[in-house]
Design goal:
Layout (H helix, E strand, L loop, with lengths): L1 E4 L5 E7 L2 E6 L12 H12 L5 E5 L9 E12 L4 H7 L2 H13 L2 E6 L2 H18 L6 H12 L4 E8 L2 E11 L2 E9 L8 H15 L4 E8 L3 H8 L4 E10 L6 H16 L3 H11 L5
Helix pairs in contact: 3-6, 8-9
Length: 289
C-alpha cells in the first residue's frame, strides 16, 4: 500500500495489485468530503480515470457523475455543542443516557482527560480486551503510536479514561479540527459494564470538547448492521444523517470478505489468547479499513 496524495489535491491512498489500481479516500476514515467546487472535482476525477482502463475508486462521501454508484453504508450522529452544558445534558434521553451518567458518578466512577502516552497505553490494553471479546483484529500498536504523536501530541485531540478506584474500566480517543471533534475509538472492560462507564466517558469528552471551543461533537460512523449502536447514539440528542460512499465502476461485492470475517476470523480470535488478536491485527487489519 502506498500512502500518497494525488497530484490533483484530493487525498487518496493508492493500492496496486498487478495492473489493477485502486484509489481510496481515505481508508480508516468515516467520511472524506471533497472540498472543491463540483467542476474542479469532476476535472480531478476525470483526469484520474484517463490514466488507465483498470482503475477503481472509492470516495467516502456522496459523489454524483462520472459513472459513480452510491451506496448507503450507515449513519452519522452530530451533537450541537454551542448550547450551555446543562441544556445539552437535558437533550439526552433520561433513562438511556442521563441516569447512567448520574449513577456512575454516584457509585464513585471518575472521568479524566489525558494527553500523555501512558494514557494511550492504558487505552490499548483495554482496547485489546474489547476487540478480543468482539472477535475483531486490533489495530497494530504502531497505529496508536503514530496517532498519539501526530494527533494527541499536536493538540488535535485527547484521551478520556474512566476509573473506579485505580482501575481503568473505560477509555475513548477523540480527534478534532475545524470546530468538529470526532469520537474515534472506545474500549471498556466487560466485567464492569453494569456501571455504564462509557456514558460517563462520553459526557467527560463532551464537556472537554466544549472547553476547547469545538462546536460539533461527531459520534462517528454507525454501520447499518449495528442497530444497537445506532439507538445508543440517537439517545444523545444528536441529529442523524445518512452516510453514503461512492464507487467506480461498480459497488464492490464484499460477500466473501464478510463470510471469512464472520465464520473464520471472529471465532478464532474470540477463542484464542490475546496475542492472536494482536497478530491478526498486524497481518489482516489493512483489509478492515
Amino acid at each position: 500500500m502506498d500512502n500518497n496524495h494525488s497530484e490533483q489535491t484530493i487525498p487518496f491512498v493508492i493500492k496496486k495489485k498487478g495492473k489493477q489500481v485502486k484509489y481510496i479516500s481515505l481508508p480508516f476514515s468515516d467520511e472524506v468530503t471533497l472540498l472543491h467546487s463540483k467542476k474542479i472535482n469532476e476535472n480531478i476525477i476525470s483526469g484520474i480515470l484517463q490514466t488507465s482502463d483498470n482503475i477503481s475508486i472509492e470516495l467516502r462521501c456522496k459523489y454524483e457523475g462520472d459513472g459513480f454508484k452510491n451506496k448507503l453504508i450507515g449513519h452519522k450522529h452530530l451533537l450541537d455543542l454551542t448550547q450551555e452544558s446543562k441544556i445539552i445534558f437535558n437533550t439526552f434521553k433520561k433513562t438511556q443516557v442521563q441516569q447512567p451518567i448520574q449513577k456512575a458518578i454516584k457509585e464513585g466512577l471518575s472521568g479524566e482527560v489525558r494527553i500523555d502516552f501512558d494514557a494511550m497505553t492504558e487505552f490499548y490494553k483495554l482496547h485489546l480486551i474489547t476487540r478480543k471479546k468482539l472477535g475483531i483484529p486490533i489495530q497494530p500498536k504502531r497505529f496508536f503510536f503514530h496517532f498519539f504523536h501526530e494527533i494527541i501530541k499536536n493538540n488535535l485531540g485527547f484521551i478520556v479514561l474512566v476509573s473506579i478506584g485505580k482501575k481503568v474500566i473505560s477509555a475513548g480517543i477523540f480527534a478534532g479540527a475545524n470546530k468538529t471533534i470526532t469520537y474515534k475509538f472506545s474500549a471498556s472492560h466487560p466485567e464492569y459494564l453494569t456501571y455504564r462507564p462509557n456514558n460517563l466517558m462520553l459526557w467527560t469528552a463532551i464537556l472537554e470538547s466544549k472547553k476547547r471551543g469545538f462546536e460539533v461533537f461527531d459520534f462517528g460512523r454507525t454501520d447499518l448492521e449495528t442497530k444497537g449502536l445506532r439507538k445508543f447514539k440517537q439517545g444523545w440528542g444528536t441529529i442523524e444523517e445518512p452516510l453514503y460512499y461512492s464507487y467506480y465502476p461498480e459497488i464492490p461485492d464484499k460477500t466473501k470478505f464478510i463470510f471469512i470475517k464472520n465464520n473464520i476470523v471472529t471465532p478464532v480470535i474470540k477463542h484464542s489468547p490475546g496475542f492472536v488478536c494482536q497478530w491478526t491485527g498486524e497481518v489482516l487489519y489493512k483489509y478492515f479499513g
